[in-house]
Amino acid sequence: MLDGTELIQYLSDQQTDGSQRLQVSTLKVESKSDEEATEPIKTLSQKQLPPSLVEPFWVRRKPKVLLVDDSITLRHTLAMTLDKNGYQVFQAQDGYEAIEQLQHQTDIQLVICDIEMPRMNGFEFLKHCQQDPALVDIPVVILTSRSNDKHRLIATQLGAKAYITKPYLEHQLLTTVTDVVEPI
């Protein structure tokens, strides 16, 4: 465990310009009477504060994304791209497995889903999400090789937030993911 003073000193030592040092001050502690000493001390985590104020600044929550595609190669490629861009990635090979993942990981913020998959395809998955109150608010982005307007229209009618065709451009995919996960 790292002492707060040690952390500040360490960060201070990491400065490239030695003249810019962080100021570290000493905290004075007064002794209390016996009656006051029995009162419990509330810590920040016990108070009703937002998580961003309780958690240290270096702890950042990664948005969680579920990739649904029967191609393991595509899933791994996408997972590496998303991971290096700050997302926590979960994977499923079809719609059924995706539903199982969503039941276990209730804080997934985005699903990227193919259309053509065995057992449960992307359209069936979208329809299931529309009808399940626990899943209806999770945005789904379709990533598919189907580029015609018919498939795009069906996906949109079933609630897809975006539609990307394969092969995709990495920067376009990342922009779409960011826009859906963190809308302005």
Describe this structure in words.
- By secondary structure, this protein is an alpha/beta fold.
- The protein has a domain at 64-181: Rossmann fold (3-Layer(aba) Sandwich), CATH 3.40.50.
- The protein has eight helices and five strands, in the order αααβαβαβαβαβα.
- It has a five-stranded parallel β-sheet with strand order 2-1-3-4-5, with helices on both faces.
- The model is unreliable at 16-29 and 41-47 (pLDDT under 50).
Topology:
Layout: H1 4-13, H2 34-37, H3 51-54, E1 64-68, H4 72-84, E2 88-92, H5 95-104, E3 110-113, H6 122-131, E4 140-144, H7 149-157, E5 162-165, H8 170-181
Parallel strand pairs: 1-2, 1-3, 3-4, 4-5
Structural class: alpha/beta
State the helix count.
8
Strand tally, please? 5
Poorly predicted residue ranges: 16-29, 41-47
Shape: globular
Sheet bearing the most strands, described?
5 strands, parallel
Our estimate of the beta-strand percent is 5-15%
Main-sheet strand order equals 2-1-3-4-5
Question: Percentage of helical residues?
Answer: 25-40%
CATH class of one domain: Alpha Beta
CATH architecture classification name of one domain: 3-Layer(aba) Sandwich
> Which fold does the CATH topology of one domain refer to?
Rossmann fold
Rg, please? 24 Å
Superfamily (CATH H level) name of one domain: Response regulator
Distance between the termini: 38 Å
- The SSE string, one letter per element, is HHHEHEHEHEHEH
- Mean residue pLDDT: 80
